[in-house]
Amino acid sequence: MPRKTRRATFHHGDTRRAAIEAALTLVTQDGREALTLRTVAERIGVNHRALYRHFASLEALKAEVAALGFGRLSDVLEKVPPGQSRALARAYATFAFAEPSLYDLMFALPLRQWYGDDTALGPAMRRVTAAAVAAIGTRDAQARVFRLWGLAHGLIGLYRAGAWRARSDRQAIQFIAGLV
To answer: In angstroms, rounded to a whole number, what is the distance separating the alpha carbons of residues 178 and 40?
Structure first.
């Protein structure tokens, strides 16, 4: 009986980082539903079981990708000057329309579970909150941020679902910002 040829072993080097980057690309290109451990493993050239050395589950990998998304959102919100709630709403909605699949992934997770956590997702979410509070710049900033996010997030969802129409994404963003 002929002997099976052994497959050359593959050592990735930084599997964790490569997996997170591949997952982010996958979500951005194909949507959050396309994200599986097997697909990520195929993209980086490792066996899917190897990913379990770095992530306890698919949810843990999603949390890492969401942390990158919250980092990107923070970068945008931190540029909003204090006292500019309309600019904050505009920046938030612009991010949602520019990164729809990443935005969907970020808000599809049980965020409350991770908010106080010290893993990547908790600090990233707290950074977004701090940037938004700073942009509101008033005594009751946290309550105003929560109302603004509720309004913006709801309208973004309605628009993207087709329940509310605007001539363009840009017009939708302007409408959302105008309500603040």
So the answer is: 40
